[in-house]
Specification:
- Strand 7 (172-176), helix 6 (184-201) and strand 8 (204-209) form a beta-alpha-beta unit.
- With 257 residues, the chain is of the alpha/beta class.
- The chain is built from 9 helices and 10 strands.
- Strands 6-7-8-3-9-10 form a 6-stranded mixed β-sheet, sandwiched between helices. Strands 2-1-4-5 form a 4-stranded antiparallel β-sheet, covered by helices on one side.
- Helices cover 37% and strands 25% of the residues.
Length: 257
């Protein structure tokens, strides 16, 4: 049974989820989820494919509505917001997609300029260029500024996708399978970048993954999702020192193949 030993504190928690339920027909995906994410904390949500990890982050940013429960993000009850209020909240939430979601017909510079020009129309061209160069430098890819996405490696595309998300200076980052499809060396680079983003941009993050190396490297806290509920929360070592057979089987699946 999921524990609720963390108390909701609006001054400490940037994300607070209480008794969250979500079903699609007879498929009961989330069955009473509780999660607190503190300011500037990286929380990793672990679970097998199809356990509802991606559904959870879509609910957090208002892309899906819950059937029951409350979701408080940056002091706002997400399920009560109208569309205009949701759009304002989403500007403070960065979403890093598995696919990087870059526009193939635009250069790296144009990809990064697009959200900035759309949402920060008061900026001069010089200021736009300065911010583009700043985030590219932060992800270590300033040299790619005039390249097309097709010229980049998979790891570089991931980094540019994160840079484009950072350009609006979000308070919260949501990473969906950030190391999926990457080789081990590139995965380590992305994990290090997630930690760097937290330090340099003061972000609060939820990282959705089934990659235990990513979880151990990036997570201040790990939450194990199984059958629609978190069955264990704590540090990586606390979670995987559990004698719960479901958790041990997940560990073995990742590291003993």
């Amino acid at each position: 049974m999921e524990t609720k030993n963390e108390q909701t504190d609006p001054f400490e928690n940037e994300i607070s989820i209480m008794d969250l339920y979500k079903s699609f027909g007879e498929n009961h995906v989330l069955r009473g989820v509780n999660l607190q994410v503190k300011n500037k904390e990286n929380v990793v949500v672990l679970g097998r494919s199809g356990t509802g990890k991606s559904v959870l982050i879509k609910i957090i940013c208002g892309l899906l509505k819950p059937d029951q429960g409350s979701i408080n993000v940056l002091g706002k009850e997400v399920e009560l917001l109208n569309e205009k209020e949701l759009q304002q909240l989403r500007l403070q939430i960065g979403f890093s997609f598995q696919s990087s979601a870059l526009y193939d017909s635009m250069t790296v510079k144009e990809n990064l300029a697009f959200p900035l020009v759309r949402h920060s129309k008061h900026l001069s061209k010089k200021e736009v260029n300065q911010q583009i160069e700043r985030v590219l430098d932060a992800v270590g890819l300033l040299q790619t500024i005039n390249q097309m996405p097709s010229e980049l490696s998979g790891g570089q595309r991931k980094r540019i996708g994160i840079a484009r998300t950072l350009i609006l200076r979000p308070k919260i980052m949501l990473y969906d399978e950030p190391t999926s499809g990457l080789d081990p060396i590139t995965s380590i680079e992305i994990n290090n970048l997630i930690n760097l983003v937290k330090q340099e941009f003061n972000t609060t993050s939820i990282i959705i993954t089934h990659d235990l190396t990513c979880a151990k490297t990036t997570g201040d806290k790990v939450a194990m999702l199984f059958d629609g509920k978190f069955i264990k929360q704590g540090t990586f070592d606390e979670v995987f020192s559990s004698d719960d057979e479901r958790i041990q089987n997940f560990y073995k699946y990742n590291f003993i193949k």
